[in-house]
Structure to design on (132 residues):
């Protein structure tokens, strides 16, 4: 009986390092992240766009571009980034296709500008609380 236990233990000990190695490789492959950075510009004028929403499509994390149009976000390597801004068409870009310091251009959408509401201001009398 002890000989059989010895053989089983020897078999388990021989296979243990391969199991650990396989687990370490799988964890390394599943957790590959990349920091993507770049600048968001208007397509016609190359003016930096401030406050562009950059959202990872499947992960759900996101960021916004700063006053110079620059952004930085950490995402998985196969992720798709969605760039959206009021008055511009959304743009989806795969992280694998992006360069180290990417320049993203957004196209203006003139149809969205029809939804802007202009409000006129009048004058108010403080003692009667009546606005004209």
């Amino acid at each position: 009986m002890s000989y059989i236990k010895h053989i089983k233990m020897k078999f388990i000990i021989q296979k243990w390092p391969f199991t650990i190695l396989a687990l370490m490789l799988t964890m390394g492959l599943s957790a590959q992240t990349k920091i993507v950075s770049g600048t968001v510009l208007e397509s016609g004028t190359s003016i930096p766009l401030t406050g562009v929403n950059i959202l990872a499509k499947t992960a759900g994390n996101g960021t916004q571009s700063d006053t110079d149009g620059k952004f930085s976000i950490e995402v998985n390597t196969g992720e798709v980034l969605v760039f959206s801004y009021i008055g511009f068409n959304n743009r989806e870009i795969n992280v694998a296709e992006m360069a180290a310091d990417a320049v993203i251009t957004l196209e203006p959408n003139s149809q969205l500008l029809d939804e802007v509401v202009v409000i006129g201001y009048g004058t108010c009398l403080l003692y009667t609380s009546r606005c004209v």
